[in-house]
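Pasting as-is:
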Amino acid sequence: MTSEIEILLWGVYFYDLIFANLSEAPRLGEEVWSGSFELTPGGPFTTAVAMRRLGLRVGWMCDFGNDSFSQLVLEAARREGIDEGLFQYHPRPVRRISAVFSTPQDRGFLSYVDDVPQTSPIPQIEQLQPRCVFLPQLYYGDAYDDLFAAARRADSLLFMDCQATQATLETPGVAEALGAVDIFAPNATEALQVTGAATVEEAAARLAELAPLVVVKLGAEGVLARVGQRTVRVPAIPVRAVDTTGAGDCFNAGFLYSYLREAPLELCLQSGSICGGLSTTAVGGSAAAPTAAEVEAYRVGLSS
């Protein structure tokens, strides 16, 4: 199965403790009560599940240890039928944990990770020649030049999300990394942080001077894409949001579901918006990640 993958996903798991339905974010010295609570795998696990439910053949390259959090995520991955061929196992703890403080509008994280270096994906890229190499965060610097070069040699689409970062375009290596990818997909906060721009439109324009396609996720305001001098906007779908954790991960999966089938950009953005929007209707990033049939049925409803 691993030899037939379309997407090689390289990213560490997280196990999320989600405090949802908050009226406000917690502050030091005060206590805030959540309306609901869930324990669930998160991070790239959400992306892998969302991709698989859409029928994409995804191989998730992830490290696991002998700790209870690793085992919980492994059990969940097996229930979802995720290909285990690229999993790496270590005889020590590989704990990656996030406490998620979630309001209907946004979320924040308090995280911990054991210091375990990720196994390089370069040999797998060279062997498997995937259609897409998916990077769930902003990777930059000399340490990643060989990874980018391996993706180019394999003629793989290189898709990079951002995640929370303190880096900017002035940080050494960031501009070069964005110039090496095919698609860069930050959210609005990340795009403004990286560029220092005053608006997301200005941020997208600056990023598009480096990356061929920039996709900026705007939450309830939808999504903005920039290709050269062309800007495309697609609205968010109307939903009653319960928890926004993992919405961006599900958006990415939906976008690639259509993009790898060479659909028009507007339709790719719509697929992402449908997946991201529907994912917010339940607590946990992957709980409401839709199938391809559900996406297409929703799309029909939008056009009728």
